[in-house]
Amino acid sequence: MPFTIRYATEQDAPNLAIINIVSFRHQPMWDNLFPSVNIDGVLPLKTARCLDKLVSPQVHVVAAVDDETGQIIGYARWVIPGEPTSVVELSPVGAETLAGHANGKAYPENMRKDVHARFWDMLKGKQESYVQEDDFVLEFLATIPEAQGKGVGTALLRWGLERADARNARVYLEATTDGYSLYRKFGWEDLEEMRMDFTELGGRGAQSCIESDTCTAVYQVLGED
Protein backbone atom coordinates (compact mmCIF):
# COMPACT_ATOMS: atom_id res chain seq x y z
CA MET A 1 0.00 0.00 0.00
CA PRO A 2 1.93 3.08 -1.21
CA PHE A 3 1.11 6.22 0.74
CA THR A 4 2.33 9.77 1.31
CA ILE A 5 2.72 11.72 4.55
CA ARG A 6 1.58 15.34 4.29
CA TYR A 7 0.17 18.10 6.46
CA ALA A 8 -3.56 17.85 7.08
CA THR A 9 -5.91 20.54 5.76
CA GLU A 10 -9.27 21.95 6.81
CA GLN A 11 -10.98 19.73 4.24
CA ASP A 12 -9.49 16.68 5.95
CA ALA A 13 -11.11 17.39 9.32
CA PRO A 14 -14.26 15.23 8.88
CA ASN A 15 -12.15 12.26 7.77
CA LEU A 16 -9.74 12.74 10.65
CA ALA A 17 -12.69 12.77 13.02
CA ILE A 18 -13.98 9.48 11.61
CA ILE A 19 -10.55 7.87 12.02
CA ASN A 20 -10.52 9.06 15.63
CA ILE A 21 -13.89 7.45 16.27
CA VAL A 22 -13.26 4.20 14.41
CA SER A 23 -9.86 3.71 16.05
CA PHE A 24 -10.99 4.14 19.64
CA ARG A 25 -14.67 3.25 19.96
CA HIS A 26 -13.74 -0.31 21.03
CA GLN A 27 -11.96 1.02 24.13
CA PRO A 28 -13.68 0.94 27.57
CA MET A 29 -13.16 4.70 27.75
CA TRP A 30 -15.48 5.23 24.80
CA ASP A 31 -18.37 3.21 26.23
CA ASN A 32 -18.14 5.01 29.54
CA LEU A 33 -17.73 8.48 28.05
CA PHE A 34 -20.50 8.12 25.45
CA PRO A 35 -22.81 5.43 26.92
CA SER A 36 -25.89 6.57 24.99
CA VAL A 37 -24.45 8.71 22.19
CA ASN A 38 -24.23 7.29 18.66
CA ILE A 39 -21.48 8.07 16.16
CA ASP A 40 -23.52 10.77 14.44
CA GLY A 41 -23.87 12.50 17.79
CA VAL A 42 -20.12 12.46 18.41
CA LEU A 43 -18.91 13.35 14.89
CA PRO A 44 -19.56 17.13 15.12
CA LEU A 45 -17.54 17.30 18.35
CA LYS A 46 -14.67 15.32 16.88
CA THR A 47 -14.65 17.40 13.69
CA ALA A 48 -14.55 20.64 15.68
CA ARG A 49 -11.74 19.23 17.82
CA CYS A 50 -9.76 18.45 14.66
CA LEU A 51 -10.26 22.00 13.39
CA ASP A 52 -9.13 23.34 16.77
CA LYS A 53 -5.92 21.32 16.55
CA LEU A 54 -5.29 22.50 12.98
CA VAL A 55 -5.25 26.13 14.14
CA SER A 56 -3.36 25.51 17.40
CA PRO A 57 0.17 26.93 17.58
CA GLN A 58 2.95 24.32 17.68
CA VAL A 59 0.54 21.48 16.83
CA HIS A 60 1.52 19.72 13.60
CA VAL A 61 -1.24 17.50 12.21
CA VAL A 62 0.11 15.12 9.58
CA ALA A 63 -1.91 12.65 7.54
CA ALA A 64 -1.05 9.45 5.68
CA VAL A 65 -2.79 9.39 2.30
CA ASP A 66 -3.24 6.33 0.08
CA ASP A 67 -1.51 7.19 -3.20
CA GLU A 68 -4.01 5.22 -5.28
CA THR A 69 -7.33 6.24 -3.73
CA GLY A 70 -6.51 9.56 -2.05
CA GLN A 71 -8.08 8.23 1.16
CA ILE A 72 -6.64 9.33 4.49
CA ILE A 73 -5.58 6.10 6.19
CA GLY A 74 -4.02 7.49 9.35
CA TYR A 75 -2.89 10.65 11.07
CA ALA A 76 -0.81 11.97 13.93
CA ARG A 77 -0.62 15.13 16.00
CA TRP A 78 2.82 16.31 17.04
CA VAL A 79 3.51 19.20 19.40
CA ILE A 80 6.91 20.65 18.53
CA PRO A 81 8.14 23.30 20.99
CA GLY A 82 9.41 26.52 19.47
CA GLU A 83 8.69 25.31 15.94
CA PRO A 84 7.29 27.87 13.49
CA THR A 85 3.58 27.26 13.69
CA SER A 86 1.81 25.01 11.22
CA VAL A 87 -1.51 26.76 11.83
CA VAL A 88 -4.07 26.27 9.08
CA GLU A 89 -6.02 29.38 8.11
CA LEU A 90 -9.65 28.30 8.20
CA SER A 91 -12.21 29.31 5.62
CA PRO A 92 -15.23 31.29 6.86
CA VAL A 93 -17.21 28.04 6.93
CA GLY A 94 -14.50 26.28 8.95
CA ALA A 95 -14.20 29.17 11.38
CA GLU A 96 -17.98 29.22 11.83
CA THR A 97 -18.02 25.47 12.46
CA LEU A 98 -15.30 25.78 15.09
CA ALA A 99 -16.92 28.74 16.81
CA GLY A 100 -20.31 27.04 16.71
CA HIS A 101 -18.92 24.16 18.73
CA ALA A 102 -17.19 26.39 21.29
CA ASN A 103 -13.76 25.56 19.83
CA GLY A 104 -14.37 21.85 20.25
CA LYS A 105 -15.87 22.05 23.73
CA ALA A 106 -19.59 21.83 22.89
CA TYR A 107 -20.05 18.31 24.17
CA PRO A 108 -22.96 16.16 22.99
CA GLU A 109 -25.96 15.69 25.24
CA ASN A 110 -25.66 12.60 27.45
CA MET A 111 -21.86 12.58 27.32
CA ARG A 112 -20.43 11.68 30.74
CA LYS A 113 -18.72 14.95 31.57
CA ASP A 114 -17.61 13.60 34.95
CA VAL A 115 -15.72 10.77 33.23
CA HIS A 116 -14.15 13.29 30.85
CA ALA A 117 -13.08 15.57 33.70
CA ARG A 118 -11.63 12.72 35.78
CA PHE A 119 -9.64 11.40 32.84
CA TRP A 120 -8.20 14.75 31.80
CA ASP A 121 -7.33 15.68 35.38
CA MET A 122 -5.36 12.44 35.65
CA LEU A 123 -3.73 13.02 32.28
CA LYS A 124 -2.80 16.60 33.09
CA GLY A 125 -1.16 15.46 36.31
CA LYS A 126 1.01 12.96 34.46
CA GLN A 127 2.01 15.54 31.87
CA GLU A 128 2.99 18.02 34.56
CA SER A 129 5.14 15.34 36.18
CA TYR A 130 6.94 14.17 33.07
CA VAL A 131 6.84 16.66 30.19
CA GLN A 132 9.74 19.11 30.06
CA GLU A 133 9.85 22.41 28.19
CA ASP A 134 11.84 21.15 25.21
CA ASP A 135 10.09 17.79 24.83
CA PHE A 136 8.25 16.83 21.68
CA VAL A 137 4.79 15.42 22.42
CA LEU A 138 3.00 12.85 20.30
CA GLU A 139 -0.59 13.75 21.19
CA PHE A 140 -2.31 11.29 18.89
CA LEU A 141 -1.61 8.55 16.36
CA ALA A 142 -4.15 6.28 14.71
CA THR A 143 -4.68 4.37 11.47
CA ILE A 144 -7.80 2.87 9.95
CA PRO A 145 -8.15 -0.88 10.57
CA GLU A 146 -7.51 -1.73 6.92
CA ALA A 147 -4.12 0.02 7.00
CA GLN A 148 -2.84 -1.45 10.23
CA GLY A 149 0.30 -3.55 9.98
CA LYS A 150 1.33 -1.88 6.70
CA GLY A 151 3.84 0.65 8.00
CA VAL A 152 1.49 3.61 8.25
CA GLY A 153 1.80 4.06 12.00
CA THR A 154 5.56 3.63 11.78
CA ALA A 155 5.81 6.34 9.10
CA LEU A 156 3.73 8.78 11.14
CA LEU A 157 5.93 8.03 14.14
CA ARG A 158 9.16 8.47 12.19
CA TRP A 159 7.97 11.86 10.91
CA GLY A 160 8.21 13.30 14.40
CA LEU A 161 11.15 11.22 15.59
CA GLU A 162 13.36 12.50 12.78
CA ARG A 163 12.65 16.08 13.83
CA ALA A 164 13.18 15.27 17.49
CA ASP A 165 16.47 13.52 16.71
CA ALA A 166 17.67 16.62 14.86
CA ARG A 167 17.29 18.55 18.12
CA ASN A 168 18.37 15.71 20.39
CA ALA A 169 14.98 16.12 22.07
CA ARG A 170 12.94 13.66 24.09
CA VAL A 171 9.52 12.55 22.86
CA TYR A 172 6.62 12.09 25.26
CA LEU A 173 3.83 9.74 24.22
CA GLU A 174 0.27 9.27 25.29
CA ALA A 175 -1.21 6.11 23.80
CA THR A 176 -3.58 3.24 24.28
CA THR A 177 -2.21 -0.21 24.93
CA ASP A 178 -3.02 -0.94 21.26
CA GLY A 179 0.10 0.99 20.27
CA TYR A 180 2.31 -0.31 23.05
CA SER A 181 4.24 -2.85 20.95
CA LEU A 182 5.06 -0.25 18.28
CA TYR A 183 6.51 2.19 20.79
CA ARG A 184 8.48 -0.52 22.57
CA LYS A 185 9.97 -1.49 19.22
CA PHE A 186 11.32 2.04 18.90
CA GLY A 187 12.96 1.91 22.32
CA TRP A 188 10.53 3.53 24.73
CA GLU A 189 10.63 2.35 28.32
CA ASP A 190 7.72 2.32 30.73
CA LEU A 191 7.60 5.05 33.35
CA GLU A 192 4.26 4.51 34.97
CA GLU A 193 0.93 2.79 34.51
CA MET A 194 -2.24 4.79 34.98
CA ARG A 195 -5.46 2.93 35.69
CA MET A 196 -8.88 4.52 35.49
CA ASP A 197 -11.61 2.56 37.25
CA PHE A 198 -14.93 3.54 35.71
CA THR A 199 -16.92 1.77 38.42
CA GLU A 200 -15.94 4.59 40.79
CA LEU A 201 -18.14 6.85 38.67
CA GLY A 202 -20.93 4.36 38.19
CA GLY A 203 -19.58 3.06 34.89
CA ARG A 204 -18.33 -0.33 33.80
CA GLY A 205 -14.84 -1.81 33.73
CA ALA A 206 -11.47 -0.10 33.82
CA GLN A 207 -8.71 0.96 31.47
CA SER A 208 -5.01 0.75 32.08
CA CYS A 209 -2.53 2.94 30.26
CA ILE A 210 1.22 3.31 30.38
CA GLU A 211 3.21 6.52 30.05
CA SER A 212 6.39 7.12 28.03
CA ASP A 213 9.15 9.12 26.12
CA THR A 214 12.27 8.28 24.14
CA CYS A 215 14.53 8.21 27.16
CA THR A 216 11.80 7.04 29.48
CA ALA A 217 8.15 6.34 28.68
CA VAL A 218 4.62 7.41 29.43
CA TYR A 219 1.52 5.88 27.85
CA GLN A 220 -2.01 7.17 28.38
CA VAL A 221 -5.37 6.53 26.77
CA LEU A 222 -5.87 8.57 23.63
CA GLY A 223 -8.83 9.15 21.44
CA GLU A 224 -11.14 11.28 23.53
CA ASP A 225 -9.59 14.58 22.50
Structural summary, described in words:
Residues 3-216 form the N-acetyltransferase domain. It comes from Aspergillus heteromorphus CBS 117.55. This protein has 225 residues and is α+β, with helices and mostly antiparallel strands. It has one domain: Aminopeptidase (3-Layer(aba) Sandwich). The protein is 37% helix and 21% strand. It contains seven helices and eight strands, in the order βαααββααβαβαβββ. The chain has helices spanning 13-24, 28-33, 39-54, 92-100, 113-130, 152-167, 180-185; strands at 3-7, 59-66, 72-79, 136-143, 171-173, 192-197, 206-212, 217-218. It has a five-stranded mixed beta sheet with strand order 1-2-3-4-5. A three-stranded antiparallel beta sheet has the order 6-7-8, covered by helices on one side. The longest helix has 18 residues, at 113-130. Residues 215-225 have low confidence and may be disordered.
Mean pLDDT over the residues:
84
Number of strands: 8
| Radius of gyration, CA atoms, in whole angstroms | 17 Å
CATH topology title: Aminopeptidase
Domain N-acetyltransferase: 3-216
Keywords: Acyltransferase, Transferase
GO molecular function, one term: acyltransferase activity, transferring groups other than amino-acyl groups
Protein name: Acyl-CoA N-acyltransferase
Name the features:
single chain; 225 residues; alpha+beta; Aminopeptidase; five-stranded mixed β-sheet; three-stranded antiparallel β-sheet; disordered C terminus
